[in-house]
Amino acid sequence: MSERHTRGAARIAELDGNHPQPRQEAYRLLAEVCPDLPRLAVEFAYGDIHSRPGLSAAQRELVTIGVLIALGDTERQLAAHLSGARTVGLEPHQLVEAVLQALPYAGFPRTVNAMAVARQMLKDRGELPVTPPGA
């Protein structure tokens, strides 16, 4: 394995923590038809970009979440990054606020769909209901 791949795999492991993501199974299935695609995702997205200095893993996850919401049709990736953000320290109410922040920019359909993904991820982790700070 290249240094980039090793660095990317380490970042993915950090983001997944004790909550394995379907990302690994998706990469395994993709490798059956195109081994370069999961390799490039690990090396480039996580080994080169996500591992850069300058932003914390949590900050990078917030940016990624916003982009995925704006793109739409990214439920699997959004679930993985919401879970990753939770694993690296963002609180459930912060994830809810991050999704809600997309509303004026991405619109209701994409924000509602993203909130449903966030709800399911939090449910799977046993973290519902979400209580805002000070409530």
Report on the structure:
By secondary structure, this protein is mainly α. It folds into two domains: 1-52, no CATH class; 56-135, AhpD-like, CATH 1.20.1290.10. It has eight helices and no strands.
Cα radius of gyration in angstroms: 15 Å
Question: How much is the average pLDDT?
Answer: 95
How does CATH name the architecture of the largest domain?
A: Up-down Bundle
Predict the CATH topology of the largest domain: AhpD-like
Class derived from helix and strand content: mainly alpha
- Give a short account of the largest sheet: none
Name of the CATH first level of the largest domain: Mainly Alpha
- Our measurement of the CA-to-CA distance between the termini, rounded to an integer number of angstroms, reads 49 Å
Q: How much helix is in the residues?
A: over 70%
Give a summary of the structure in a few sentences:
The protein has 135 residues and is mainly α. It has helices at 3-16, 22-33, 36-49, 57-71, 75-87, 92-101, 103-106, 108-124.
Architecture blueprint of SSEs:
Layout (H helix, E strand, L loop, with lengths): L2 H14 L5 H12 L2 H14 L7 H15 L3 H13 L4 H10 L1 H4 L1 H17 L11
Helix pairs in contact: 1-3, 1-5, 2-3, 4-5, 4-6, 5-8, 6-8
Question: Main traits of this protein?
Answer:
globular; 135 residues; mainly alpha; 8 helices; AhpD-like; 2 domains
